[in-house]
Amino acid sequence: MSTTIDSSALLAQLERIANSLERAFPPDQAQVFDTQAIAYQWHYRRVRGVEQAVLHAVKNPDLIAFEALQNIDRQKRLIEQNTRQFVEGHPANNVLLTGARGTGKSSLVKACLERFHGQGLRLIEVDKAHIGDLPQILDFTTGRPERFILFCDDLSFEEGDIGYKSLKTVLDGSVAGQAANTLIYATSNRRHLMAERASDNLNWKRGENGELHPGEESEEKISLSERFGLWISFYPFSQDEFLGAVNEWLAACGVPEEAFAQAHVEALRWATQRGSRSGRIAAQFARDYAGRVAAEA
Question: pLDDT per residue over 257-273, tens digit each?
Answer without folding.
Answer: 999 999 999 999 999 99
